[in-house]
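Supplementary Text 2. Reproducibility record for the structural model of the 288-residue chain.

All settings were left at their defaults, and a single model was retained for analysis rather than an ensemble. We include the record here because the model underlies the residue-level annotations in Supplementary Table 4.
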Amino acid sequence: MMRKGVWRNAGGEIEEDKYLKLDERKGEVSFTLEKAHGLDDGEKQSLSKGYSETVRSYNGRIGRAMDDAIRADRTLKWALEWDPNGVYPGFSEHGNPPLLPSDRRPFNVEDPNSTDQNTWWKVNTLILSGLAYQGYGNAYNLLTHYMERTGKDYKVDPAVMLQSLPRFRKTLGEDLAKYKGKSSFDTGWQSTRANEKDSLDWYYALNGFQYRVQGRQVYDGSGKPRMVAELSVYKRYNWGNGSESVPRKDLHKGPIELKQKDMAHLHTSGMAREYNVVGKTRFVVGKW
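Retained model, structure tokens:
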């Protein structure tokens, strides 16, 4: 609590002076010569000059303190725009869910047969080493995860995907243009694919996948509006030809032949396991 005759600014307490006056309503300090009667003109001029500098200093400190408080308030608002769980305020956590494939196969319901054994051997001794040799790290990692048969979600970074897939970037830009100027938007889940001309790595890793973009206008620490968007991707990693809009081709590399249906049956026999590929990234949209 402030003592009478004392006020605070950014530098702490300022003792009230008989030549200084505080306007409590405006929060400003001013200099008055009302109590300087009896001093000669030279003393008054010297006093006025010195105290005027003090007043400017005090008011500057008070102004900076107020600016700092405003920035702190805006920064706090910026931080609180996001739910701790990463859910946008005002948005449903799930919205419209991804389109789940209708051909989800039961896992480990048949005994492995000779074709399963042969396919498993091809993948682990030839296909994975070939992907590693070609430098297709994402395709290698996702196929390895399938063969490890844990069924756990596998996380990818959509920002890395955007760097590698120009056509995906173009599609995303077209989506954002539809909502330009709005204070919030939600594209819902959309289907697209990794084009083999952009990246064979992501083509072999995912082929088709789904994505969704949510955006909301917030204010940064300086008080400027920013459109912050969140890009989510989803893919059910499986094999075979079921719900894919573009049929998957069997793999033929030299003497190696790998059929989609044989790769899919590894899940049925428990020698591999399907799983979800998921990922999220946030970014600021410029010139909104």
